[in-house]
């Protein structure tokens, strides 16, 4: 719920900032944009942030809308990375729940899908815990917080990876399973990116 609201707010801000209406644009004073148009400057922020991730294009594609708010702030980028992963994880979980009584898949696939549901529930729990810590970062507890985040996000990533492993030997021809595998792979990549952005935060400090 909350993450949708944040995303919506950020998207609205971005649309406002990128508005083609010159009178709207000129009322905003981007002090650090004196020699550059807004878009290239802001795309540099997201590219810089995503440079530490393994799936850079996916990172830029999914996080560019946070760029005006996050700029070069590592803690905001880590939060954005986790928020986007949560949204995607919930989407997969909804799909997995829909397949519960599907007759279109074989027995082994059904078991793999059922395992995935449990793994994704666990993953989502770890992601929510991570987001809540990222929302209350504190210089005095920073080391402990970073260590917790690394633990939870690694666990979330492992869960999503394990889910995919479950399909390895099923050689599925089912279009449902193929679709879930494709989406779950992307979700795992988002999670990997979120972990990398959090490692960058640990490195940069508050
Ligand atoms: C914009 O910021 C600059 C400082 O870089 C300042 O000199 C200028 O007066 C500001 N303009 C407006 C409209 O606030
Ligand atoms: C990304 O990081 C590499 C080194 O790891 C560096 O050479 C490159 O310039 C960076 N790119 C950007 C856009 O920051
Ligand atoms: C972020 O950018 C500002 C200038 O725009 C700079 O003063 C600050 O040091 C930068 N912070 C980091 C963590 O790079
Ligand atoms: C980055 O953003 C957080 C809030 O998310 C803020 O507390 C922190 O001071 C910011 N860091 C910098 C260097 O601006
Ligand atoms: C799946 O089937 C069981 C009974 O076999 C039923 O209780 C459950 O509501 C069904 N779930 C869905 C999502 O259709």
Automatic annotation (TrEMBL):
Q: Which CDD domains match?
A: PMEI-like_3
Q: Where are the transmembrane segments?
A: none
Instruction: Give the main localization category.
Output: secreted
> Would you say which domain of life the source belongs to?
Eukaryota
Q: Which GO terms describe its cellular component?
A: apoplast
Pfam families assigned to the protein according to its UniProt record, in alphabetical order: PMEI
Protein's organism = Brassica cretica
What start and end residues bound the annotated signal peptide?
Answer: 1-25
| Record GO terms (molecular function) | enzyme inhibitor activity
Q: Where is the Pectinesterase inhibitor domain?
A: 41-197
What protein is this chain from?
Pectinesterase inhibitor domain-containing protein
